[in-house]
Automatic annotation (TrEMBL):
This is Nuclease SbcCD subunit D. Residues 1-218 form the Calcineurin-like phosphoesterase domain. SbcCD cleaves DNA hairpin structures. These structures can inhibit DNA replication and are intermediates in certain DNA recombination reactions. The complex acts as a 3'->5' double strand exonuclease that can open hairpins. It also has a 5' single-strand endonuclease activity. CDD domains: MPP_Mre11_N (cd00840). SUPFAM superfamilies: Metallo-dependent phosphatases.
Amino acid sequence: MRLLHTSDWHLGRAFHRVSMLGAQAAFIGHLVETVREHAVDAVVVSGDVYDRAVPPLAAVELFDDALHRLAALGVPTVMISGNHDSARRLGVGAGLIDRAGIHLRTAPAEAGTPVVLRDAHGPVAFYGLPYLEPALVKDEFGVERAGHETVLAAAMDRVRADLAGRAPGTRSVVLAHAFVTGGQPSDSERDITVGGVAAVPAGVFDGVDYVALGHLHGCQTLTERIRYSGSPLPYSFSEAGHRKSMWLIDLDAGGAVRAERLDCPVPRPLARLRGALEDLLADPALTPHEEAWVEATLTDPVRPADPMARLAARFPHTLALVFDPERSPDDPDVSYARRLAGRDDQQIAEDFVAHVRGAGPDPRERAVLRDAFDAVRADDTLREVAR
């Protein structure tokens, strides 16, 4: 069976205030043509269809167009909700849409109930694991402590139990939206840390033939059977080095995987430039970036006058301006930035406690801080769902 694995469309999202709807529509057209050109048997979309729980009308219209075009091909599509989606809203009408070959899996309770498709070699069971917010689904899965690994492990137990009851030789595909250990994040993914831990081990997914992951925006291979497709478009300058693509996956009769990357259309290249303003304006080596979306980091010791206007004269698509003046290593601003670099909210809070009272938090206090951060994240998620 031939699968096309994609994820993280983020319909409705802008890139530094530049609308991406045109580029997103072009991607949908490219997706449909790819399905036709490569004789794809099934499309899998691993979450974050929309960029927020209540998407703008134009994004909803684009999604509606995508569903109609995919259904018209007669090629089944299996789709899950991600952490940016409202699972309930995305899943409205799933039962009716199912009849058109578009299979929306947004309910955690359905984790062990697959969409079963067939090819010449027999059945393939597709299990949709939507984004599982631990605090909201722990009761559904009967786990005592909310955590990404515990709820995903419980969901995969249901998958394996269902698979064990199926005919021998049934091949299996799992769609999941999660941060799996070994994946490389970018700046444009929303933090899903719970209990101080965001990542789950790849071993959670043992026992299935292919795992189609969503959430991280860079296309990457964790194992031959576990892959992220990445987002089809860039949503932050941290993705400047990404090659935006989809995975074309062939599952043979025994469940072995053969994978090929298919490039997505690029609306405009990204460039991250760094240096003194005058150097950026004069350097002939930067000519190839004059039509790119540009993030410029200025290292001038004193902020120059009208930097954005002057940059835009040469790089008309400059979208982001960062000031990082060159300073001596003992400058207080430099040392403070270095102390914060790479530290998460929990670590920063613990540092603050140590600074205020002269000693860091004990294990009980660390647990209180961790629970407080988890409660805030869960509350934010509930507010998104309720909107």
